[in-house]
Amino acid sequence: MLCKICKSKGKKEKAVISIRHHKLALCKEHFLEWFKKQTLKTIKQFSMFGKEETIGVAVSGGKDSLSLWQLLTECGFKTVGIHIALGIDKNDYSKKSLELCSRLSERINRPLIVFDMKREIGYTIEEIAKLSGRKDVCSVCGTFKRYLINKIAVNEKMAAVATGHNLDDESAVLLSNTMRWDTGYLARQYPVLEEKEGFAKKVKPFCFFTEKEIVSYAILKEIEFMETGCPNAGSATSPVYKQALAFLEHKMPGTKLRFYREFLKKGRPAFEKETKEEYNLAPCRTCGMPTTAGVCSVCRILEKVRGVNAKSGKN
Ligand code: AMP
Ligand code: FES
Ligand code: ZN
Ligand code: ZN
After folding, report:
1. 203 DSSP β-pair partners
2. What is the pTM of this model?
3. Which of 21, 61, 208, 238 could disulfide-pair with 97, CB 3.0 to 4.6 Å?
C-alpha cells in the first residue's frame, strides 16, 4: 500500500499505517504530521490550553501518556510530567514505570514530579487496598491517583493536567455508562473538565486517537514504554466493553469514533440539560481538598488504614 499524500504529489512512498476509519494510508513522515495536526486541532477545538501556560502531563509509563508528553513538548508547550509511584512490586511494575518516565523526561529535557506513595504516605497502593478491606486494588488506585494528581496540579498552579486517555478508553466508558443509563456520568463525560474550587482543569488531547494510532506514534518516535498493563487489573469490566467495540469496529470501521463524536455533539448536551448538578463542595476536614462528604474519600480510606495498623501494632 502506498502513502495517499505522497501519491497525490506523484511520489511512491510505502505506507507504514492504514487508518481504515479515516480511509488513510500514510508513510512515516505524513503519519507523524497527521498525528500532530489532529492533536493540535483537538486542543484548539476544546480550548484546552495555550503555549504560555504550564501544563502537567500525568504519565504512567504507558504508550499513551508518554507519547502525549513527547508530542506536547515537541509542539512547544511548557510541560511538566507528574508520576505517581504506586509501589507495585509484581514484575517490578512500579520501578520500571518510573524508569521509563524518567528516561523520557531526560530525553525531552522537561521536569518530572514524582510522588512516591510508600515514602510520602507510608503505604503502597496494595497495602492501602488490603488494610482498608477493598478487594479491587485498581479502583482504590484510581481514587488515589486522581486525588494526588489534582493536588500536585493545584499546588504547582498548573493551568491544566493532560492525561493519555484514548478513543478506546473513552468509547468503552461511554458504552458502559450508556448500558447503565448513568445520566450523571453521561452529562459529565467530555474531553475537558473545567477548573473549579480546588479542582485543576483536566484535558484529554488524545481522545480521538485509537490505541493502534498511538502505539504507532510511540514506535515511530522510538519512545520506550511499558508493554504490560497493571498486574492487578484482572477483574476490570472495561475490557468487555472494549472487546464489544472492537468487534463492532471490525464489522463497521468508524463505529468507535462516530459513537464518541456524535455523543459529544448530540448526546451529552441533552443529558447536561437534564442533570442539574447540585452538590456543595467544602474543604475536607482532614486535608483541605474539596469534597461533598465532609471528609474526602482518600482521607477516609487512610483513616481506616492507619486505624487498622495502630490496632495490629498493639497486638
Ligand atoms: P489508566 O486509567 O491506567 O488507563 O490511565 C489513564 C491515564 O491516567 C494515563 O494515560 C495517564 O495519563 C494517567 N495515569 C495513569 N497512571 C498514572 C500514574 N501512576 N501516574 C501518573 N499518571 C497516571
Ligand atoms: Fe493501579 Fe491497578 S493498581 S491501576
Ligand atoms: Zn507520504
Ligand atoms: Zn481529605
Report:
1. 162, 192
2. 0.95
3. 61
Cα 273 to averaged position of ligand 1 atoms, centre (Å): 30
Which atom belonging to ligand 1 lies closest to the Cα atom of 58? 22
Parts of the chain with a pLDDT under 50? 314-315
Q: How many CB atoms lie within 10 A of CB 237?
A: 10
- Asked if 64 and 165 touch (Cβ cutoff 8 Å), the reply is yes
Sign of CA dihedral 34, 36, 37, 38: positive
Closest ligand to 63 CA? 1
Provide the residue type at 57 as one letter: V
199 φ/ψ angles, rounded to the nearest 5 degrees:
-110, 125
- Our mutation pick for probing the ligand 1 site, out of 88, 96, 102, 145, counting the most ligand atoms within 8 A of Cβ, is 145
- Cα gap 189→166, rounded to integer Å: 13
C-alpha cell, 209: 486517537
Nearest residue to 102 (alpha-carbon basis) of 90, 92, 89, 114: 114
> What per-residue confidence (pLDDT) applies to 95?
97
pLDDT tens for residues 229-288?
Answer: 899 987 556 689 999 999 999 999 999 999 999 999 999 999 987 776 667 889 999 999
